[in-house]
Each structure stands twice: as structure tokens, then as C-alpha cells.
Write a structure and sequence with these properties.
Blueprint lengths: L14 H5 L7 H23 L4 E2 L1 H22 L3 H23 L4 E2 L1 H24 L24
Parallel strand pairs: 1-2
């Protein structure tokens, strides 16, 4: 118990639980894990954008809402693989930031249209990458479900 009553203890899911690849738990556990992952992705996205420009609030809402759905879907299907996937997922977040910055051009900030175009590029990239890995018999691939940063590209949007 926190002895200093002026500062409440933070409600944090233990790092070990979030990183454990087989920890699926309740829907609340998954949602907390996804929020943690999204925070990490936004940090990587911010690193990619740097001081070049800002990100409009509507773009942040779009990215968070769009990928929260995808990440939850991936975790429900594959479990929490964050400890194995973190490098790929944050790398793709950086790619998203670079693409969004490019689409924003001289506007000074990433707007929702730029974020949507960048998201489409990222999803197209990881789908193509996974198909190529499956075609060449990548031993780390998990069949047709294999995705670079699988959180980004789930089959919920396959034609």
C-alpha cells in the first residue's frame, strides 16, 4: 500500500504479464496490453516524425482507433506475442510516421488524410512482405497468417 496518500499508486499491468507470449487473459487484459503497445507505437511514430511537424488530433484519433481494432484482433487470434514482435511492430510504426510525414508535405502537420494514406501503405507493405515470406518458405512464417508486424495487418480486411 502506498504510504504517501497524496500520490495514489498507478494502476499498471506488470511488464512481465504484457510481454508474456502466451498471456491472453480476459478481454480487459488484452485491451490494457493493446493500449500499452499503442503507446509504444506512438512513441516510435513520434521518433520518426521528430521535430519536422506535429500530428493533428484527428490523425491521432484515426491511428489509435484504426490500429486498436487491428491489434486487438491479432491478439485474440495469436495471443500476446509482444515480446517477440516488438521490434517489427515499432519498426512499422516508424515507417508509418515517415510515410505520413511525406504525405503531409509542406502543411506543417500530419492531418488525417495523410495518416490514412500512410496506413494504407503500411498495410499493403506488410501484406506483400508476408506473401513473399510464405512463397519462399520462410521457416519463421506461420502459414498464411504470417505478417511482418502481424498486429498491423490482420485478415479482417482481406478481400
Amino acid at each position: 500500500m502506498n504510504q504517501d496518500m497524496s500520490r495514489p499508486e498507478p494502476d499498471v499491468t506488470p511488464q512481465a504479464d504484457l510481454a508474456h507470449p502466451t498471456h491472453v487473459g480476459t478481454n480487459t487484459d488484452l485491451e490494457r496490453a493493446v493500449d500499452y503497445i499503442l503507446d509504444d507505437c506512438f512513441f516510435a511514430l513520434g521518433q520518426a516524425i521528430g521535430m519536422r511537424m506535429t500530428v493533428d488530433y484527428d490523425a491521432v484519433k484515426f491511428i489509435r482507433g484504426h490500429y486498436r481494432t487491428k491489434f486487438l484482433s491479432a491478439m485474440r487470434e495469436f495471443g500476446n506475442r509482444w515480446s517477440q514482435d516488438r521490434q517489427n511492430v515499432t519498426g512499422v510504426a516508424m515507417m508509418l510516421g515517415e510515410r505520413a510525414t511525406r504525405y503531409a508535405g509542406d502543411r506543417g502537420s500530419v492531418d488525417v488524410e495523410s495518416a490514412m494514406k500512410a496506413a494504407a501503405d503500411v498495410e499493403r507493405y506488410c501484406k506483400l512482405h508476408s506473401r513473399r515470406a510464405a512463397r519462399f518458405g520462410d521457416p519463421t512464417a506461420e502459414g498464411s497468417q504470417s505478417r511482418i508486424a502481424g498486429y498491423w495487418c490482420t485478415d479482417d480486411d482481406e478481400p
